[in-house]
Amino acid sequence: MRKSSKRIVEAYLVACARLGDAAAREHLVERYQRRFLRHAYRLLGDAEQARDAVQDAWVEIVRDLSKLQDEQAFPAWAFRIVSRRCARRVAALQRNRKVLSSASMGPDPVDRGARDCELAADCAPLRAALSGLSSEHRAAIALFYLEDLTVAEVAVALDIPVGTVKSRLMHARRKLRAALEGECHGQV
Predict the structure, then answer these.
(1) Alpha helices, DSSP H only, in 100-161?
(2) Which CATH architecture is the domain 1-116 placed in?
(3) How far apart are CA 105 and CA 116, in angstroms?
(4) Could you tell me the residue ranges of all domains in the chain?
(5) Are the C-beta atoms of 157 and 143 separated by less than 8 Å?
């Protein structure tokens, strides 16, 4: 019931925002900003890049909100926009790395602001296990378990077939289980 009530309120906010209600748009930003930042950080691995991608995504979300046919589809639709913005940033970063490949630099120091974007996991082994997953597996796991999207919504958000989402979730769970069991057995 709680999840249903939350979705109803969000659908109402989306409907109001579509009609030009600035307060409803602000409430949507309040509800989704941190979630989008966490998702973007999981995909990009850099807090500053994540903030920029989410800012660009919000511009597109607000601009195209009137095109959204179903208010209930907002979470998946908006996460898809964030995912696409992140993909564009990754592609741009890869192009820049190719150009700068001759000037090899060491890894960037850990960004302390990243802790604000990353979901605060209490357990270091879980964080390590999650970081060991590919970005595709991390994104599927995070959207499904942390953002409470359905498999169909994850498919929309990541622009992949439902079967691929199920496969990624299955493989990611297996990898997480193996990593966490290995960590537990290593401590005994």
Answers:
(1) 114-117, 124-131, 135-141, 151-158
(2) Orthogonal Bundle (1.10)
(3) 26
(4) 1-116, 121-188
(5) yes
Question: Any idea how long the chain is?
Answer: 188
Quick one: fold of 121-188? Answer: Arc Repressor Mutant, subunit A (1.10.10)
User: Which residues have C-beta within 8 Å of that of residue 50, sequence separation ≥ 6?
Assistant: 37, 40, 41, 43, 44, 86, 117
Neighbour tally for 157: CB within 10 Å: 26
User: Could you tell me if 52 and 98 are in contact, meaning their C-beta atoms sit under 8 angstroms apart?
Assistant: no
Contacts of 136 (CB under 8 A, 6+ apart): 158, 168
Which amino acid makes up residue 157?
Answer: A
Q: Are 39 and 58 in contact (CB under 8 A)?
A: no
Q: Using the predicted structure, report yes or no on whether residue 1 has a pLDDT greater than 50.
A: no
- Residue 51 CA from chain centroid, whole number: 12
Taking the CB of residue 167, how many other CB atoms lie within 10 A of it? 14
pLDDT digits (tens, 9 = 90+) for 33-82: 999 999 999 888 889 999 999 999 999 999 999 999 899 999 999 999 99
Beta carbons of 54 and 85 less than 8 angstroms apart = yes
Mean pLDDT of the chain: 82
pTM: 0.67
